[in-house]
Amino acid sequence: MSQIELIKPDPGEPHAIEETGIAGVYRTRRLSVFERWQREGKIEPRHLNAANIFNIEFYNACLTDNYATMQFGRIPSGSVPERARQIADARKRIAEACRAVGQIGASWLWDYVGLEKPLKAAPDRREAVGTLRIVLDLLAAHYRL
Question: CA nearest 93: which of 64, 56, 68?
Fold first, then answer.
């Protein structure tokens, strides 16, 4: 068996093995729910890309608050001016994405894509999957994917 065959993730496996920046060093990473859905054919690759873009922007915006109480203009104290500008820009992009999917969709996007809450927390799992697919479709359209 070759090295390449060893690092290929199994489609049924909830983990992926990735190469790191250090030669010959690999790490195991748990797949996100959206990566699993894309592998299962529940969502399209553009939906996965939209979720990844939103998640990266969410991380860059240093957001951990509840969507209902979020103040997009507030920047963490102690930030250096350049970092504060980057955070403010990321928060602006997050606010635009939330407006693009609507208020209810933004709440779902915030909780399950941004904060990565488990779908077990949703009241009805089947409804959650359907709602998230619609929200991801609107988000992909917003990002022009």
Answer: 56
CB 1 within 8 A of CB 8: no
The rounded distance, in Å, linking the Cα atoms of 23 and 76 is 36
Phi, psi of 88 (to 5 degrees): -65, -40
Q: pLDDT digit string (tens) for 65-84?
A: 655 445 555 555 555 677 77
Q: How far apart are CA 91 and CA 98, in angstroms?
A: 10
- Spell out the domain ranges in the chain: 1-31, 32-142
pLDDT score for 70: 56
Q: Rounded to two decimals, what is the model's pTM?
A: 0.71
pLDDT of residue 6: 46
Asked if 15 and 31 count as a contact pair (C-beta separation under 8 A), the reply is: yes
